[in-house]
């Protein structure tokens, strides 16, 4: 697979930062209402993580730089992580090339069969036979470590209903851990999360709730498969992470709410940042 760009940098761009369901509207315009999708440009290669509705926005941008060549990674297959796949326009253009990585739920069949029969066929408004790009499938399992040239990718299980996979990406001594969707444990930090977060430059962490929301006696979120920003800060402190990124924002959290929340987060972690659509972070 050819390089997608000539950059010698490690960049992370956010195309979808919302959890559970897209939330368009004037109350979410600044942080964004599209669901999970991030892009990493590393040493001339393009890596895409998750295919929420943000993938459709990324796809429109990629049409400007065809032919498109990218590696795509999926944490799991809940709707908010695959909504953009059927409308990912570059996949319908001949000459583009994608290699898709992910686990197969319950180890049932091949990854290609899973995508075509479960992800695309029942959810796509357009005929999947129209996907003219060259698409390859690579089945991986939690715990696998592999390389794409000089990029090292480590994986691990996350605590989420039906399962999910976290990805740590390392290049030239710098690492980013994409850690969504996951729920913390009440009495200890998840050892799988702690291991993949160790000394990372960036932790992109499922911080859907505040501690107050998570433990709200009238409407608790315990067991829903998501964590809090307070727990994300704890992971960063325990693992020696350089920078915490709050990700997977709750659909009901407006821009104004997140602005106020940012003050609390920065007081707890001065180098933290709240993910916004279009935001680019340089990993150094």
TrEMBL record:
It holds the Pfam family Lactamase_B_2. Gene3D superfamilies: Ribonuclease Z/Hydroxyacylglutathione hydrolase-like. SMART domains: Lactamase_B (SM00849). Residues 34-226 form the Metallo-beta-lactamase domain. It comes from the Bacteria. This is MBL fold metallo-hydrolase. It comes from Floridaenema evergladense BLCC-F167.
């Amino acid at each position: 697979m050819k390089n997608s760009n000539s950059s010698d940098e490690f960049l992370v761009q956010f195309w979808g930062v919302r959890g559970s369901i897209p939330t368009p509207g004037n109350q979410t315009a600044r942080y964004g209402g599209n669901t999970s999708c991030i892009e990493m440009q590393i040493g001339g290669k393009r890596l895409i993580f998750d295919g929420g509705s943000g993938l459709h926005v990324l796809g429109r941008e990629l049409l400007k730089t065809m032919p498109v060549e990218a590696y795509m990674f999926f944490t799991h297959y809940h709707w908010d992580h695959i909504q953009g796949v059927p409308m990912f326009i570059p996949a319908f253009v001949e000459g583009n090339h994608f290699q898709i990585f992910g686990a197969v739920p319950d180890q049932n069949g091949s990854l290609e069969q899973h995508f075509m029969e479960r992800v695309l066929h029942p959810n796509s408004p357009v005929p999947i036979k129209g996907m003219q790009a060259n698409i390859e499938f690579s089945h991986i399992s939690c715990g696998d470590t592999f390389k794409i040239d000089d990029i090292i990718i480590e994986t691990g299980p996350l605590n989420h209903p039906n399962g999910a996979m976290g990805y740590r990406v390392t290049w030239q001594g710098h690492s980013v851990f994409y850690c969504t969707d996951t729920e913390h444990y009440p009495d200890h930090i998840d050892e799988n999360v702690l291991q993949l977060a160790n000394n990372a430059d960036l932790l992109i962490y499922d911080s859907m709730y505040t501690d107050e929301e998570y433990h709200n006696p009238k409407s608790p979120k315990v067991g829903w498969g998501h964590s809090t920003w307070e727990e994300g800060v704890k992971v960063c402190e325990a693992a020696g992470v350089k920078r915490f990124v709050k990700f997977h924002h709750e659909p009901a959290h407006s821009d104004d709410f997140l602005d106020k929340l940012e003050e609390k987060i920065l007081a707890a972690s001065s180098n933290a940042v709240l993910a916004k659509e279009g935001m680019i972070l340089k990993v150094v």
